[in-house]
Amino acid sequence: MALTIHQKLASIVEEIDRKGFAELVRLSVLKKWFDKPGRLIAFALWIAEKATTGETPASEPEAALLAQARALLEDIQARGDLNPRAMRELHGRLEAFQSDYRSLSWGQVRMVHSKALLLIEDALTICLRHPDDPRLGYKLAADYCGHYDARYGRNLNGPSRDRVQEIAELIARREADEIAFPHGTSILG
């Protein structure tokens, strides 16, 4: 019998508890889950919402962009559907805020000053440009959950455990809604 997505995510949490870390690639189990229509956009918006409530902003411009993102997400929830024009405007402001690149010997590297704003930008990219690309959902999950620890490198460790658990809970709620309302599940989650 094949393991469910819940069992696979639970095994990631158990591995973190047992070994102290798990490889980021373990989150690739989400790709198949994102194949069902609406799930990827709902997940992206959920990640964007999570990103707006994280760390204290380092600067006034960052705080203003986080406030704009919160307002947009609240508007989307109130409307019950996406607002592409407002999403594109915010996406452009987010790209402009972190538009510094540094040339290294192997190419250009984008300088990211705010992980939260990058998560929101990537979530909006999914909603606006790639709503059917499960690979981007996996990448967004990996960026949200991934954590650097000198003992393990960048993978699933420390605070990653709780984030993987949060994703498992989101998936359980979404699947329960899909069963309870088979023709009425919103793309917003």
TrEMBL record:
It comes from the Bacteria. This is Uncharacterized protein.
